[in-house]
């Protein structure tokens, strides 16, 4: 597999948005779990650029604005016309007292609290705040952030969708797209079901889906991914390691969906790892490359907290994987028999 190009279509204009199949996820640069110095953050972004990565994703949530501010510094050095940038809307950041800072998994953050707001005014406020933090008047893709039941619960998801469609949030997105201020709209979420639901309601160009189509999970093959292919809707795949276990293997303390992995997941990962070992392929390489076998999946965006992690991601992405590995995973029932698998070269532009 090579760090090659792909495209995501703006379905309204059929304008292709060029992406690299390996992108850069900006959550770690918001000081996810630990503090990263400004120098290390910029060196990490430079390493991604130098490696040929040209798709970068961030969000207001990541460090309560810190990730976007760090991207702003990098954008002054990068050729803005040569990259695709995405961020997210739906979380509005408000100044607050220290004791009211929104508790998150990010450390050393500004004094901000998060208010979820998917109304017209909320989407516009979130967008313009991001433009100000990023220091650019052009954001290529704008994703509704965490509008799904995973964040709000089933009843909350229904409420937020009503907010989006009856109180003008979706209208705000389409106005920004029609005005050329953004090129594509979608949602950045942790469940595929909300993406399918959104496609039943309106016109979206793509989705940033965290996990849910991985070596461990292929349920979207039943209905969602075929719908994406039929509608020319592209998927950007975050979380290809299911929050850790497909990177670390079934070690003590391995995490699956941000919690300690249950026994049945540990057992399956051991079996996946054994097949990979038989073919001298690291499990992490198979996990990173597997989603790109599906034609709806345009890019994968693992995060990185330092330049060495960027280089490791590129090395993993470019690790050769024999076709026999995928065949063995299917024959042993470890991935679905109908799962498309990566070819050489994958989705070459």
Automatic annotation (TrEMBL):
One of its GO terms (molecular function) is oxidoreductase activity. It holds the Pfam family Aldo_ket_red. GO terms for cellular component: cytosol. Gene3D superfamilies: NADP-dependent oxidoreductase domain. Residues 22-330 form the NADP-dependent oxidoreductase domain. InterPro entries: AKR, NAD(P)_OxRdtase_dom_sf, NADP_OxRdtase_dom. This is D-threo-aldose 1-dehydrogenase. It comes from Loktanella salsilacus.
């Amino acid at each position: 597999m090579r760090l090659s190009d792909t495209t995501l279509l703006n379905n309204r204009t059929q304008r292709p948005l060029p992406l690299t199949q390996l992108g850069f996820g900006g959550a770690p640069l918001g000081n996810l779990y630990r503090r990263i110095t400004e120098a290390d953050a910029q060196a990490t972004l430079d390493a991604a650029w130098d490696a040929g990565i040209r798709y970068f994703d961030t969000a207001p949530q990541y460090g309560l604005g810190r990730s976007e501010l760090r991207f702003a510094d990098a954008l002054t050095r990068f050729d803005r016309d040569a990259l695709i940038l995405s961020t997210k809307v739906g979380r509005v950041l408000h100044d607050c007292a220290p004791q009211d800072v929104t508790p998150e998994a990010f450390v050393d953050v500004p004094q901000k609290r998060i208010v979820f707001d998917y109304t017209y005014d909320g989407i516009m406020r979130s967008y313009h705040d991001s433009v100000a933090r990023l220091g650019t008047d052009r954001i290529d893709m704008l994703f509704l952030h965490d509008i799904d039941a995973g964040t709000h619960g089933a009843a909350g998801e229904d409420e937020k969708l009503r907010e989006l469609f009856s109180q003008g949030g979706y209208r705000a997105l389409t106005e920004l797209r029609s005005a050329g201020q953004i090129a594509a709209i979608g949602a950045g979420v942790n469940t595929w079901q909300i993406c399918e639901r959104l496609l039943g309601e309106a016109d979206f160009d793509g989705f940033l889906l965290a996990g849910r189509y991985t070596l461990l999970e292929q349920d979207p093959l039943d209905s969602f991914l075929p719908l994406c292919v039929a509608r020319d809707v592209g998927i950007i795949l975050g979380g290809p390691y299911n929050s850790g276990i497909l990177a670390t293997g079934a070690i003590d303390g391995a995490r699956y969906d941000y919690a300690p992995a249950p026994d049945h997941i540990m057992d399956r990962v051991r079996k996946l790892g054994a097949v990979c070992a038989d073919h001298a392929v690291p499990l992490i390489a198979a996990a990173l490359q597997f989603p790109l076998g599906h034609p709806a999946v345009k890019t994968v965006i693992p995060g990185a907290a330092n330049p060495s992690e960027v280089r490791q991601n590129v090395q993993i992405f470019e690790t050769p994987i024999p076709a026999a590995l995928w065949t063995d995973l299917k024959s042993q029932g470890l991935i679905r028999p109908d799962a498309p698998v990566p070819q050489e070269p994958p989705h070459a532009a």
